Amino acid sequence: MGKIILDLAVTLDGFIEGPDGEIDWLVKDDKTDFGDILFEILEGVDAVFYGRKSYEAWGNYRPGENAGAKLREAYALLHSKQKFVFSTTIKGDDTDAVFISSDIEKKVSGLKREIKGDIWLYGGGSLITSLVNSGLVDVFRLAVHPVILGKGKPLFKDINEKIRLKLDTTRASSSGVVLLTYHAAN
Fold first, then answer.
1. Is 112 helix (H, G, I), strand (E, B) or coil?
2. 10-residue stretch averages of pLDDT, the chain, 186 residues long
3. In the chain, where are the structural domains located?
């Protein structure tokens, strides 16, 4: 049975996007290649959960030739994973992605049992809220960037009840980004 892993970048004040959807606040680390990060995220992952907006923005993104071989290989690996898109407005596209529009909690519970490896909860905000409120997120791996935006799209919004987490690991980079990994303390 796979675990659902929420893995994404967040500002120090808890935002995942700026007020206009921008992610220009992401701190770049000259010593770390994003391809390496993506390979690390995908280790043990067999499926990816996307909200509609996240899927439209990044679900089929392919870096250009100038991006470098490692990053292109990392995205090829990402696109080899089974994709599930949660949307009430789009029912499908010309890819192998599975679109889910109803009975989210029941279907996600079933997918957790069926999928052998882990599931990367890529985003977006509404999907994250639904799965957190349903108690279906097992691991919270957050790359906290040393930036305070003051406004934007919060990571956690409309959470129904307190959720206790247990700190598993921390890792700091020279750029000031701190990777925090928590497990649900069920």
1. helix
2. 92 94 84 73 92 89 82 87 94 92 93 94 90 95 95 93 95 90 87
3. 4-184
User: Quick one: DSSP state of residue 162?
Assistant: -
Contact partners, residue 73, CB within 8 Å, separation at least 6:
35
pTM confidence score: 0.91
Q: Whose CA is closest to 125, among 86, 163, 89, 76?
A: 86
Q: Which helix (H) or strand (E) holds 75?
A: helix 69-79
Strand order across the 4-11 sheet? 98-100, 82-86, 45-51, 118-123, 4-11, 139-145, 178-184, 165-172
β-bridge mates for residue 6, sequence order: 121, 140
Other Cβ atoms less than 10 A from the Cβ of 135: the count is 14
Write the CATH number of the domain with boundaries 4-184. Answer: 3.40.430.10
